[in-house]
Q: What sequence folds into this?
């Protein structure tokens, strides 16, 4: 299995503050990887390091086996949409496409970019400052995709959009993933938007990697257990969070193998609940073994 | 061509929801041998889900011998699940529609109707066994 993004002991310090510490992870090629975590956990820093906009203080990062920023060829393989999807507000959509074509040369796919914008009814002659937030996000996505990148990095691309625009954006993204060998790194605060869309999960917490792995594997190895308030925790599980009322106790657990316990009712967990459980328990974590779990 | 949907509140994992929807379409005759399923890209885009989920569903259907992937062409239905009872579906659907209208007029919500149907069907099956 080939790897799209790999970091080893990656760390970044701004002044006296470590924005990222000892970050070791790998994202397999062809995946849609979610990067989640509280504000200040290092998501944006990780993304900027991955696309070569920042250099590591320590450790290393590689994209398809090469350090980003080392050469124009490796940069050409990476598309990046920063937070707030920055565009030149006084330039028209057509101007943006022209700039992209000039900067990217042969790799630039003008045809599919124009087709995509036409399908979304985004007027080419309009200044981007006059577009809606959803349309600007689509123009940014179109620009990033027109490079025909192998890795697409999206930093909170849908944060400021209304629900319909969010769905349209994510639908376009999923269609694009189906059509190409694209690997996506996507950060979002809205976990519900990531559910059923991301198949790989990176949780960053306090500038470290807290959880890493295949989403289906993580959902299969975690569960919510409801049981007696005073009973012992079942064997063979690691408790991520525990909530107790006078009648019963609710545990979010990681199971080390298939297990049944007569006193505990086991319920499947959603991605959102899994993420929330770990975000609420910064001391807990789950990482694949040295060989990776997939 | 059939359209897919995803029930976010369902406990059934997404790829099996897609599998079930195809099976159901095969059972009711909505899909017949020779019909083409939408492409993985079309489903990923229309439902806004990860294309690997769609691939997994199509592989499962292929494994069950219901559909067949033809390289460069798409995925096609090769077997129907509609039994000999299919001919009577239309008349039954009409009388069910009339019954649903009565249920709604009596103030039943969709959840009430599903619950009533489910318990009645269960009781009916039990009678048959006894």
A:
């Amino acid at each position: 299995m080939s790897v799209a993004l790999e970091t080893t002991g990656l760390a970044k310090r701004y002044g006296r503050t470590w924005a990222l510490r000892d970050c070791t992870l790998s994202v397999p090629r062809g995946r849609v990887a979610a990067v989640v975590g509280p504000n200040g956990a290092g998501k944006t820093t990780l993304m900027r390091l991955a696309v070569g906009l920042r250099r590591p203080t320590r450790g290393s990062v590689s994209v398809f086996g090469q350090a980003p920023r080392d050469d124009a060829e490796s940069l050409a393989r990476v598309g990046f949409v920063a937070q707030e999807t920055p565009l030149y507000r006084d330039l028209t959509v057509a101007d943006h496409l022209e700039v992209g074509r000039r900067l990217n040369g042969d790799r630039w796919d003008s045809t599919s970019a124009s087709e995509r914008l036409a399908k979304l009814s985004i007027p080419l002659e309009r200044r981007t400052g006059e577009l809606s937030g959803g349309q600007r996000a689509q123009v940014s996505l179109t620009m990033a995709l027109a490079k025909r990148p192998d890795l697409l990095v999206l930093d909170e691309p849908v944060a400021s959009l209304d629900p319909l625009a969010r769905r349209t954006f994510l639908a376009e993204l999923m269609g694009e993933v189906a059509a190409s060998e694209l690997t996506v790194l996507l950060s979002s605060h809205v976990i519900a938007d990531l559910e059923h869309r991301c198949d790989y999960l990176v949780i960053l917490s306090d500038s470290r990697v807290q959880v890493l792995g295949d989403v289906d594997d993580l959902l299969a190895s975690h569960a919510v257990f409801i049981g007696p308030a005073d009973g012992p925790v079942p064997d063979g599980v690691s408790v991520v969070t525990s909530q107790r009322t006078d009648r019963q106790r609710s545990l979010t657990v990681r199971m080390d193998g298939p297990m049944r316990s007569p006193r505990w009712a086991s319920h499947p967990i959603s991605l959102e609940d899994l993420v929330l459980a770990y975000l609420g328990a910064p001391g807990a974590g789950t990482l694949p073994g040295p060989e990776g779990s997939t | 061509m059939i359209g897919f949907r995803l029930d976010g509140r369902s406990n059934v994992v997404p790829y099996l929801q897609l599998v079930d929807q195809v099976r159901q379409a095969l059972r009711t005759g909505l899909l017949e041998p020779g019909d083409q399923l939408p492409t993985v890209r079309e489903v990923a885009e229309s439902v806004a889900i990860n294309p690997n989920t769609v691939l997994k569903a199509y592989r499962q259907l292929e494994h069950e011998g219901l559909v067949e992937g033809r390289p460069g062409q798409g995925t096609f239905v090769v077997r129907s699940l509609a039994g000999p009872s299919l001919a009577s579906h239309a008349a039954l659907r009409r009388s069910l529609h009339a019954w649903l209208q009565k249920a709604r007029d009596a103030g039943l919500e969709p959840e009430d109707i599903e619950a009533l149907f489910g318990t009645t069907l269960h009781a009916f099956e039990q009678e048959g066994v006894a």
Summary: Chain A touches chain B through 16 residues (CB under 8 Å). The longest strand of chain A covers residues 3-14. Residues 216-279 of chain A form one domain.
